[in-house]
Design a protein that fits this description.
- The longest helix is centred in the middle third of the chain and has 12 residues.
- This protein has four helices and no strands.
- The protein has a single domain, classed as Cytochrome c-like domain (Cytochrome Bc1 Complex, Chain D, domain 2).
Length: 87
């Protein structure tokens, strides 16, 4: 992430380990395929995906370069989820 441009904001909703905060309806990023994450982030950036409440994802991804999107995706793919599966 890049605190100056807001990438640190990922962990506010998706959790420190990318395993999503229980109180929020957000996807788990940990151990996710990087190409899927890259594709999803680009869809938010290009407005092909708009299912983010309050436009949170779109506002964050608008500040990210293509290199930052890839870096976040690959970083997230190596995270190990620590929470038990949501029921």
């Amino acid at each position: 992430g890049n605190a100056d441009t807001g990438q640190a904001a990922c962990f506010v909703c998706h959790g420190k380990n990318g395993d999503a905060l229980v109180d929020l309806d957000v996807p788990i990023l940990a151990n996710q395929h990087p190409q899927y994450l890259i594709s999803t982030l680009k869809e938010f950036k290009n407005r092909k995906r708009t299912n983010d409440n309050e436009r949170v994802m779109r506002r964050i991804v608008d500040t990210m370069s293509a290199e930052e999107i890839e870096a976040v995706a690959y970083y997230s793919s190596y995270l190990v989820p620590t929470l038990e599966e949501k029921k």
